[in-house]
Every structure is written in structure tokens, then in C-alpha cells.
Amino acid sequence: MKKIISLLIAAVLMLSLAGCGSSPADEKRIPTEEILESFGLDPELFSDYDYDRFYGQEITLNVANWGEYMSINDDEMVDVNEVFEALTGIEVNYKTYASNETLYSKLLSGGATYDIIIPSDYMISKMISEDMLQKLDWNNIPNTANVMPSFLHAQYDPNDEYSVPYLWGMVAIIYNAAMIDDEIDSWGALWDEKYAGNILMFNNPRDAFGIAQAYLGYSLNTESEAELDRCFELLRQQKEIVQGYVMDEIFDKMEGGSAAIAPYYVGDAVVMCEDNPDLDYVIPKEGTNWFVDAMCIPATAENKEAAEMYINFLCEPEIALANSEYVGYSTPNAVTYSLLDDEVKNDEKRYPSDEFLSEHTEVFINLSDGTNAYMQNLWNQLKIDNTNVWFVPIFLVLLIAATIFVNVWRARKKKRDNF
Amino acid sequence: MKASKALAVPYAVWVLIFTVVPLALVVWFAITDSDGSLTLENIFAMSDYMSVLFRSILFAIIATVICLIIAFPAAYIISRASAINQSTLIVLLMVPMWINFLLRTYAWMTLLEQNGLINKLLGLIGLGPYNLINNSGAVILGMVYNYLPFMILPLYSVMVKIDHSIIEAAQDLGSNKVRLVRKVLLPLSMPGISTGVIAVFVPSVSTFIISRMLGGGTNDLIGDLIEMQFSGNSYNPHLGSAMALVLMIIVLFMMSLFNQFGSEEDMPI
Is A211 within 8 Å of A190 (Cβ atoms)? Predict the structure, then answer.
């Protein structure tokens, strides 16, 4: 019995060694159509880009993206990274980050080298101004022809040199119709005392101030300290009736009916509405923030050409469709848009008209360092402002009492020990 | 003698690379500005945040005291149980710690929400709903829940070594229960208490995720503030380091104060 097992093991070992023998470069890649069909994709819709140019060269691509922001690891949907790996032979090392700012500080501290990042509009302009991005070679990304014209020459990248839009959306008010009687159409609902204790708010300064700015009719990119002060007053007023400041926690809270009303991104609102039929969302009449997340290549990237191939791949209509459907955000890809269901296509909250976008929305651009610091400082004040002024005195008294106690106690102990 | 010293080299190198150097970096960042020139501005700027610093310390003290009050009898009961029961109880205590700390805190969110399990159960008998989450009580609860095992375990490991005959002797000599605890158990378990207090207080005072999840962002602590300097709107590692440095010094001071009366209780009776 033992002999048979050892023979088997030897055979397996030999086979695996034989496998190693033929270098991957010699392997012939199966034809593109077969790969695509094995993933249930339509080869007709794929461009004839030469995705196999790096096949067998054992290149690894480091991709950093927002959490839950790409169609991967879902059994019911196509895993886009697996398709890319099968097509190109390039290994994708996929990482996620939680905010533009964490991505920025990761890149700045030099602790991470990424080949692809997908930051938002204002962060892209900040990174461009700090020379953190590489210019893209458009010859390597022919699929950018699919990008809708309204996304070209964006404020954050006026010459279209550094970024290719990935997904976009707006900030909406999401509310629970079972807990709210009025018709919601204004940011003012977030300041309505009727909903005290049932209001959630963004837990980051830029988005939170953005709502106050939209409500007051200011520019979302204002550099005026007086306007920011006015927004701060408004936010402080709101703090009295806010249940909590949240980011991703909003999914649990809104879906579970623990809060009635909150601002959030449209794509995520779509996902929440699917999970809880009581929920609905609306774009407030005062206007809102229109955000675009776009693919960029950091200056420190090592595989620029492979990274451009990846960007081109993500612009393939069916791949962009999978991502848009998985994430719930809107696509900037014209061909992908034509593949959508009519119901989604005509949904004005997900695909508003160009006029609506230009009249009622504003994209964040990078603020000056001074304004950023000023806003952060106001935000700190808002968050730590505590009505109880007794904390400091109580603490000091406790500390002094402890010191006295220790000293008295030691003196007594000494006395006792002397006996 | 030499051989045993050589064995300590890996640890010394470890401490040097992962403790001393980062600590020096924190100090360096705290006393420089973004141009790299020396400044005390960051430290002075801390005065704006003193209230949040003291609130963090207050919360941590409350959590530590509650942990101690719960853990002391619990550890005593475990240490007096039969050998088999002891190991079962310790495993029961450890099991929750095998589950990721974030998941456990998320579970508390589901329990405490206005539509959460507790309020639903109370609703069945006609009570509530109560506002259980997004307040300071929930934050302290989160700290107590997450760090309680760190108090029980050192207490248990000290108490299990207390010879039962000492307790019997005290009882034989007519000591009542209060006296027994005060004069015998408390002094003998002092090393466990001081380890436990540090193990609970230090992570509590610097936590940021508990206050964000259970405090709903309305009860920010110093840990949140430090985190925001690195991942917030304006990237300011200098102010963040200054905050961390001030927090570290205050905690160090408090720990040394605590150890002063801890160490003398230590003496053999």
C-alpha cells in the first residue's frame, strides 16, 4: 500500500515538474473568442486590441481601487480581473482603499507602488498639481473613443492628459418612505426638526460641507472663509438633530430602518433601494455634487504600458457594463450606455440630461491648501465640540486626588513599616 | 551569561527597528513643519483639542474601572473552579476573541440600533424603542466588551496561583468577606490588576474605530482626531504626530502614577 502511494506521489511530482519545464512563453494562448465565450462575454462587442502582447512575460499589475467598486468575487457576475488575466497573462494584484485621502497618503508616504488608481475628480486635480500622475499615451487606449463627450475636458483634467473616467454619479437624499410623510425635494429636509434623531450625515468634511454649500446656494468649490463659516454654523445647528455621522455604515442603518433620511451617492442609493423597498432617493432641487472617478497611472508606476492596457480593457463595453451593474454607479461609456435596459437608461437620477448636469450640478475641484486646512479645522470643531465643559476640570481634580491619595497612602505605609 | 545575552539580540533589533525608530519619527514629525524646519506650533495647536483628549482619557478610565469591577469576581470564580471547569471557562472567554474585532463591533451595532435586536425584543413587551447607540454609553460599552478579556486573563493567571489555604487561614482567623478581599485577595492579585489596567486602558484611550461605529461619529475621541490628520481632508502628519506624542506622554505619566501604588502593594505579606 505504502509503495503504491509513494509511486503515485512520485508520478505527480514528475508531472508537475514536466509542467514547469515548458516556459509559459512557449504556451500558445487559446484564441480570444474562446476565452471571452468561456466567461459568457460576446466577442462581437470586444475591440480587436492585441491583449496578448505581454503574454507569458509574467508581468504583475498593482491595481488600487475603492472597496466594492469592481465586478469581482461575485458568483453571479463576470469577474473582470479573471477575464483580464486570461486574456493578457498579466497577473492583477488588486488592493482597495477607503477614501481619496487614504490613497493620497499611501502614495505620498511611498509605502505603496500602484500601476492603476481610480481617485475622484478633486483628488485627480490635486495629484496633477503635485506631479503624482503620468501622462497617458492615447495610442495605447483606443477604447477611450467610447467615452461620452460630456466627460471630456473635465475641470479636474482640462486637457484629458491624465485620466480616463471610470464611473460617475451624484449625491442624492435617500429616505425611508415608511418613516417620512412629506415629499422630499430639498436639502432642507436634512435640517427638519421633525426628523430629529433620524438623520444621518456624511462623515467627511468635503461631502458634508458640500451639502451645506448646495443648500445655501454657494459654489461647492468656494474659497471664501465667510461662506465656509456660514456652512459651519448650519452644520453645527444640524448636529443637534443628527443621529450620527457615517460613511459605509449607512447601508446597515438605512436598510435596517434605523434612520429615516440621509445624503449619499446615487449608485449606493440604488443598491440600498434594491435591498429595502421602502427606500427611495431624490436629487434635491438646489443642485448637487456631480462626481467622477477616473483611472490614472501614478508617477511611480512601473508597468505603464500594461497599465494602459488595463485601462483600455476596463473601457471595453461589456466589461464597463459588468462594473456599472455590479457597483450601481453610472457609466461614462457611450457603447455601454447603449447596452443598458431602457428603464435604467431613462432614469433621470442615474442618467440625467447634459443640461441638468451643467445647470444643477458642480464637480469638486481641488481647493487651495489654506482652504482645505480651514475646512478641516472647522470640521474638527464640529466633531469635537462638546457641550460638557466639565470634562477638563473633572479630569484634573481626579488626577490631583489620585496624586494626593498615593502620597498620603505611602506616608502611612512608611509609618506602619517603622513599627 | 554571554550566550543568554546573545539570545536577546533579535528582540533588541526588533524593538530598535519597530519601536524606537518609529517613536523617534513621531517626535521628529511633531516638532517640525511641512518644510522640515523646527517648530513648536503643532504642540501649541494641541490646546484646541484638549477637551477631546480629556474626554478620551475619561472614557478610558471609566471603561477600565468597569472592566476591573466585572473582571475581579469573574477571575476569582474561574480560579476557584475545578481544573476542567477552569479550562472550559477560559476557552469560553477566549472564543469571542477569535472573531475579528471589527465584526464583533459591527454585531453590537446591529444589537443596539433603533431597529436593532434589543429594541425589537423590548418592543415585544411594550417598551422602548430606546436610544441605545450613537452616545457615549455605547462607546464605553464597546470598550468594555472588547477589552474585558485583557483584564480577566492576567487577573486569573495571578489568582490561580493563590494558595487556597491562605484564604482558609484568613477565614479561620475570623476575617469576614470584605476584609478577606481587601486584606488578602486584593494585595495578592495586584500584579494582575496592574497588567490588566494597562492592557485595557492603553488600547481604550487610543481607539478610533469603536467610537466611530458605536458613537456614530458624534462622540469622536483623540484616536479619531489623529486618524483624521492622516486620512482626512488636509493631510497633516505633523499635527497628527503632535497629538500622538501628547497622548503618549499623558498616558505614560498616568501609568507611572498608577504603578507607584501598585508596586508597593506587591510586597509579600
Answer: yes
Alpha-carbon Rg for chain B, nearest whole angstrom, is 22
B137: contact with A, CB 8 A cutoff? no
Q: For residue B154, report the phi and psi dihedrals to the nearest 5 degrees.
A: -65, -35
Residue identified by cell 509609618 is A415
Number of H helices, E strands in chain A: 16, 10
Q: Which of A352, A311, A351, A344 is nearest to A84 (CA)?
A: A311
Q: How is residue A31 written as a grid cell?
A: 484564441
Give the CA angle between residues B180, B64, B69 to the nearest 5°.
30
For chain B, the structural domain boundaries read 55-234
For B139, the enclosing helix (H) or strand (E) is helix B136-159
**B183 has a pLDDT exceeding 70:** yes
Question: How far, in Å, CA of A367 to CA of A101, rounded?
Answer: 14
- Contact between A252 and B57 using a beta-carbon 8 Å cutoff: no
Nearest to A406 among B55, B110, B257 (CB): B257
Inter-chain residue contact A249 with B213, CB threshold 8 Å: yes
Per-residue CA distances from A78 to A55, A74, A294, A311 (Å) = 21, 7, 21, 17
**Alpha helical stretches, state H, A45-200:** 80-88, 100-108, 121-129
Task: Using CA atoms of A292, A298, A304, A306 in order, give the dihedral in degrees to the nearest 10.
Answer: -50
| Calpha distance B66→B59 (Å, rounded) | 11
- B86 touches A: beta carbon within 8 Å: no
pLDDT(A21) > 50: no
Percent of chain B at pLDDT exceeding 90? 44
For residue A54, which phi and psi values (nearest 5 degrees)? Answer: -105, 10
CATH class of B55-234: mainly alpha
**pTM, full prediction:** 0.82
